[in-house]
Every structure is written in structure tokens, then in C-alpha cells.
Amino acid sequence: MSLQKITTVVGARPQFVKAATVSRALAALKRSHNIRIQESIVHTGQHYDENMSRVFFEELHIPEPTINLEVGSGTHGHQTASMLERLESVLLDSKPDWVLIYGDTNTTLAGALAAAKLRIPVAHVEAGLRSFNRRMPEEINRIVADHLSTLLFSPTDTATQNLNREGIFAGVHQVGDVMYDSVLFNTKLAEFSSKIMRQLDLAKASFYLATIHRAENTDDPERMRAILSAFAQIEQTIILPMHPRTRIRNTVAKEPIKIGRNVKVIEPVSYLDMLMLEQNARVILTDSGGVQKEAYWFRVPCITLREETEWVELVQAGCNQVVGPDPSMIAAAAARAEEMIHFEVPSDATQLYGDGHSAERIVAILYEATAGA
Q1: What is the mean pLDDT of residues 154-159?
Q2: What is the pTM assigned to this prediction?
Q3: What are phi and psi of 12, to 5 degrees?
Q4: Which CATH class is domain 5-177+354-371?
Q5: Residue ranges per structural domain of the chain
Q6: Do domains 5-177+354-371 and 185-349 have the same CATH topology?
Q7: 266-306, pLDDT tens digit by residue?
Q8: Catalytically annotated residue among 213, 243, 342, 357
Q9: 295: phi then psi, degrees, rounded to nearest 5
Q10: HEC-encoded secondary structure of 220-287
Q11: Catalytic annotation on 76?
Q12: Domain 185-349, second-level architecture
């Protein structure tokens, strides 16, 4: 049986970026094998992103969603239930051979649940990641999605070992990280089209780049106060793209949080602009999982503003420091980072996340799994 129908379920900008790499690989497989592949992209609408306009899809060569469920924000229970109800209807109508999910959002969870209950096989990209912190909603989503999946596409040795420790062996394929595929593809586009460095009058390695988006930081005024206090103690200019909602929360806190003069707060930027800022930064401070890896690929020292990370390989390689919101630890980490600007990765660590062909492996495995069914 040939691979015929795939429903890809995504709900946030990073998932679209990752899914685009697999969509391109699916298109290549279709051409090379002369087979009929129909991919439907379902956007749950979990996150509304102002940058996800038509331009976003055009400049990144990403297929626009076939269906937008427009679920929107809400509590975890309300949001997930709404997605589950609407996804069930879509899947009953389309009857795909596979449901393809990404990462660890509520969209990931809802996609896995809806498909599994309808006995549609699930393929999970980025399977096996663990923070071992079940206070994080993402951790619950990862665990449930992995245990419901038929195919589990692991990005790293650590992720594969995590799955094995939970008794999951069947269907596990270590393919590398599709984000690396994406960065290789999109950095070329960014270098050609992005004007952000010129617009902000920045030179290479002349600034730190910071991103803060996780609720554990943005919704806690004391954590934000500690982080921004640490930023003020850093001598370098810090570029901080910050969502307006985060600014409003900080403004209405009981004690408004002061931002140092060295911190330049800007509006959220496009994905291509973000890649250029990352590539040219001196040091990156972030609570984002994806940005930690992008820092590694660009050889920029990273400081993680959380108590743990799923990407433990980066800590073991010495290029990522996990410090949480503690100002003294952030300052000490910044001092250490200054000693390794644009570090060289040991030769035995260069393949931590694959070779940039992860998406090709994923579609080949999907094709073989369906053909053998």
C-alpha cells in the first residue's frame, strides 16, 4: 500500500517551521517515486502570532494550513478539549493514513489523543524529550504523546534512551533534529532577505540577545524582576524582543519592573530576523528550547533562564549554562560565556542533532511503514 494521506497537526509558529521541512521532503519523495501523497495541514489556532501572516508562509516556503480550527487561547483543559472535539471531526472526515504531530504543546497532545481514539496511527516528531519536571505542562504533553504514538522520531541519543527507560522500543527511530534541517534552509533565506541588523544598527558580536516567553517567567513578576535585574548588570547591549502582553504584565505589577539602560526592548521579530540576530549575537540568554539549539548551531554561547533543559547534550558539551532566574548565577554565566565567544565544538560532538537530513529520514520511514502495512 502506498502512502496516500497524512494529516499534519500544528498550532504554533515553531511547529510550522519544523513541519515545513517534512513537507518539502514529502514533496521530494512524491516526485522521486511518482506516487500520490496528500498532506493536509491542520492549524489548531492554539497560538495567535502576528508574524504568521501570508508573508510568513511565502518567505519561508511553508504551505498554508488546509484547515484552521481557530481554537485560540484558554485554560489547558478548555483549549485541549476544544481541539480534541474539532480534530475528531476533521479526522473522521479525512480518514488519513497517519497523523503527524510535533513537539510538546497542547496541540501535540490533542492531535495524539484524537488520532489514537480513532485508531489512526500517530507519528511524533521530537519524541523522547524530557525535562523530568512534571510541573511543566509540556512535560505531560510529551509523555502522553509518546505513549500513544506508533512511530517515534527521536532527535538525539538522550531522547532515545528516555523512551527506552519508559519501556518504549517499538517504532523508535533516531533520525536527528528537523530544526537543524530548518536552520540550514532558512539561514540562507535570512542572509538574503533580512534587514534587521542594519535596522537596529548592530555589528556582529557587539550585543547579547535575550528571549523570555515561558509562562513560568513572564507570569511571575519576581522571576522577571530577577532576570531583568541581572540583565542590567551586564555591560553589553542586550536586544530583547518582547511581546506587548509581557510588557503590560510587567507594567501593572505591584512594583513596576525597571529595565536597564543597556537593554533595548523591541517588538517580536520574524523567524528570519531572529535567525540573523542569533547568528550575529555575542551571547544568547533564553528560556526557549529551540533557541538553545540554534545558539549551538551558530556557535554562540547560551545561558538558559530555566532550572532545567531538555537539551542536556548542550550542557554536557559546555556550550549551554542552565542558571534559572538567579541574578548572581546569570552574571557568573555571562562572565564565563565571554571566555568562549564563537566556540569550536569538539569533532566528536558535531553530530549531536544529525546531519541536516532528518526530514528525509522521517518521510522514508513513513513511506516504508505504510507500504508494509
Answers
A1: 96
A2: 0.90
A3: -150, 160
A4: alpha beta
A5: 5-177+354-371, 185-349
A6: yes
A7: 998 989 999 999 999 999 999 999 999 999 999 999 999 99
A8: 213
A9: -60, -45
A10: CHHHHHHHHHHHHCCCCEEEEECCHHHHHHHHCCCCCCCCCCCEEEECCCCHHHHHHHHHHCCEEEEC
A11: no
A12: 3-Layer(aba) Sandwich (3.40)
